[in-house]
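Supplementary Text 2. Reproducibility record for the structural model of the 269-residue chain.

All settings were left at their defaults, and a single model was retained for analysis rather than an ensemble. We include the record here because the model underlies the residue-level annotations in Supplementary Table 4.
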Amino acid sequence: MTQIREALSAAVKQLGAKDITSARLDAELLMSHVTGHDRPWVLAHDDDFLTDTQSNAFQNLIQRRAGREPLVHLTGGREFYGLDMLVTPDVLTPRVETEQMVDWAIKYAPKNSDLIDIGTGSGAIAIAIAKHRPDLTVSATDVSSRELQVATQNATRHNTKIELIESDLWSNISGKYQTVVANLPYLNSDADLMPEVQREPAVALFGGPDGLDLYRKFFHDLPGHLSSRGYVFVESDPWQHEALISQAAAANLSPIEKGYFILGFQINK
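Retained model, structure tokens:
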């Protein structure tokens, strides 16, 4: 039998040898996953012993992580906006930077109005908004049926009512919305990515030579789907913001918020 402390120490060394800077945290999270307890429990009980089954499972996960398999693909989940989200290799891993989009949508969306999330992936953004603004009627779209299956499971997991629509941007969408959120692929085609990010679905990462192909289509068709005095929140790299502000201006939108990754707009009155 192996003591938790010993297993963690060996795992940290193995991951560190592969230049994984989060070796300690990753090892603790994988130990938490194997034991079925949270990190505080793992740290408080590091003199406990693993069963042979747990030890073998932990060693297997550490080997896969050392091969630069994303941590979230090993645990099958990621916390986003305080909610445990199912994450599979079919969807983009929700990132903490995106939580600012949820903050602003919750703040600005008019009461008892309609909101749509274009390109929802795991459903994390739409679900987080719906949980904190139950007065809203929330819809979410994705071009991939496999991603919508993950979003459906997450919505069920959190008992959240969301209309999920298979659509390439606005192609299958009718009607107008008071609030639109979108975290579309915005990496340029030759982006230099970490090995873990290379394991993410390409359809959720790349947006053409300058990363903005999908956003150009998004903003071009947006006016037909945004209500008067409506709000739009999008995510991109900071160096793309000026281009997105120009595209938004062509769609009769003006900036109201600007974060490091997130931009907020309101339609001109």
